[in-house]
Specification:
Blueprint lengths: L1 E2 L2 E2 H35 L11 H4 L27 H14 L19 H7 L2 E5 L6 H7 L3 E6 L2 H11 L3 H4 L3 H7 L8 E6 L11 E7 L7 H14 E12 L4 H14 L6 H13 L5 E3 L2 E3 L11 H13 L2 H21 L4 E7 L2
Parallel strand pairs: 3-4, 3-6, 4-5, 6-7, 7-10
Antiparallel strand pairs: 1-2, 8-9
Helix pairs in contact: 3-6, 9-10, 11-13
């Protein structure tokens, strides 16, 4: 048999040769990249663990090297067990490779959770601890604008990322730094930025702080770990200091009560807790399935109503849930004087829980 006058066997040999030739043309480039990575790893005194990302271990010149060179990161979720350090290492490696943390980033970009507390930190004195900081650029930003910052995490990957952030000038790390400086009050001097590997359920670090900011590293702890963490935060603060506990998608009375009880039991004052719990109890008493979004109850579509009647039944139940709102507002107003008295005393250690949704 012939193909275009060429014997079939000869065609097969030609095809194989072309494939091998293409392989040899492309493979050396892959080997060169791999050998460069391996050479770079050997320059480090500590042998990295198997779970550690090679990309983060590279060390070309400080201001020119990219933070990440990983080409195709594998998506991971936070570990089910929040005490799983190796699981957090894998998660942070993926987020750092393909998340909102590519440098330069933008101030307050998607993925930042802490920049919203800047005014509170400045008002209280500027010594701020970020326990469970992960790879959030926020702690570095606080130091750039004058705060004395300690960023800690028990994940070695997160610690290396934060230490890498520490090496960068603000205009290198934040693409909109110059516009931020122009539109805000003059920044007299850069603050201090320290990074440490630390487990915040095992006791406080050295030092006393005006503020503690925990961004989405609290809600998934076991009850015992949550209790230990709350006590750690309380011990780390000066009298009159504040802890900001930023959470995501903590729904339902039971989950919120457990979280808040750990803070109350540690000694924290939670503003307006009586009104909030009254409102939560009324909503729960209806038996209606709801989610809190921006602190208002919303009806999700979870199959709780027949499809053909969803709009009708959901609107009925929305009205029932809304019926408690006026009384809730009244209770907040009545509770405000006692809350203000505690806050104006500047002695109580205060915990603010932010229930974010997304």
């Amino acid at each position: 048999m012939e193909i275009f006058g060429v014997p079939l066997l000869a065609c097969i040999f030609i095809f194989i040769a072309a494939c091998v030739g293409g392989y040899l043309l492309t493979k050396p480039q892959e080997y060169d990249e791999l050998s460069l990575r391996l050479k770079d790893r050997l320059r480090h005194s500590r042998e990295p663990k198997q779970s550690e990302p090679v990309a983060i271990n590279t060390t070309p010149p400080v201001e020119t090297r990219p933070l990440v060179v990983t080409r195709h990161p594998v998506e991971t979720r936070p570990p089910v067990d929040w005490s799983d350090i190796a699981g957090w290492d894998r998660h942070f490696q993926t987020q750092f490779s393909d998340g909102p943390f590519w440098v330069p980033t933008k101030i307050g970009a998607l993925g930042w959770h802490s920049v919203r507390f800047l005014n509170s930190v400045r008002k209280r004195g500027g010594r701020v601890w970020f326990p469970g900081c992960g790879i959030d650029p926020g702690p570095r930003f606080y130091a750039y604008v004058g705060s004395t910052v300690l960023a800690t995490d028990f994940s070695p990957v997160a610690v290396r990322v934060q230490r890498r952030f520490a090496e960068l000038a603000p205009e290198t790390m934040f693409g909109d730094w110059s516009s931020f400086v122009k539109s805000n009050a003059p920044i007299e001097k850069c603050g201090r930025f320290d990074v440490a590997e630390h487990d915040f359920t095992a006791g406080p670090p050295t030092g006393v702080f005006d503020s503690v900011i925990n961004c989405r590293a609290f809600q998934g702890l076991s009850p015992s770990a949550m209790t230990a963490a709350a006590r750690t935060f309380f011990a780390a603060l000066r009298p009159g200091g504040a802890a900001m506990i930023d959470t995501i998608n903590v729904q339902g009375k039971a989950r919120r009560d457990v979280l808040e009880n750990s803070l109350i039991d540690a000694g924290f004052f939670l503003p307006f807790i009586d009104s909030e719990r009254w409102y939560r109890a009324q909503l729960e008493s209806t038996g209606i399935i709801y989610w809190m979004v921006l602190e208002h109850p919303h009806i999700p579509s979870l199959g709780q109503y027949p499809d053909e009647h969803f709009s009708e039944y959901a609107e009925r139940d929305r009205k029932i849930l809304a019926s408690f709102r006026a009384e809730y507002k009244t209770r907040l107003a009545e509770e405000e004087p006692s809350v203000r008295k505690v806050l104006d005393g500047h002695e109580a250690k205060v915990a603010h829980v932010v229930y974010s949704t997304g």
